[in-house]
Specification:
mainly alpha, 5 helices, single chain, 434 Repressor (Amino-terminal Domain)
Length: 103
């Protein structure tokens, strides 16, 4: 059996951009994913039940469960930032200028 050459392409640093989402949507999805991962980590470290954790972040238990299952399409960035704040997490947006290429 002949070995096939494996083509490796360097990612952009944003999996959503690499999947073909336009720049704005890719940035939004990436920020939502970051918030969801932070909230999931907070929940697992909290020792709270889903019901108690949901109450703390201002949602019902089924909504928290959807977050924990990664249902990114069900959450706006605004809602996730609000939940993070209620969990005592400090959400911060970082905007950087594009790198200039040498002439």
């Amino acid at each position: 059996m002949k070995a096939e050459k494996l083509l490796i392409e360097k990612g952009s640093g944003n999996v959503f951009a690499d999947l073909g989402f336009d720049a704005g949507e890719a940035a939004n999805l990436s920020m939502r994913a970051d918030c969801m991962m932070a909230l999931t980590a907070w929940y697992h470290q909290s020792g709270l039940t889903q019901a108690a954790a949901a109450k703390q972040i201002g949602v019902r238990q089924p909504r928290l469960n959807a977050l924990l299952k990664g249902a990114i399409g069900e959450f706006s960035l605004d809602a996730l930032v609000n939940m993070a704040a209620l969990a005592g997490l400090n959400a911060k947006l970082s905007i950087k200028s594009p790198k200039r290429k040498a002439a």
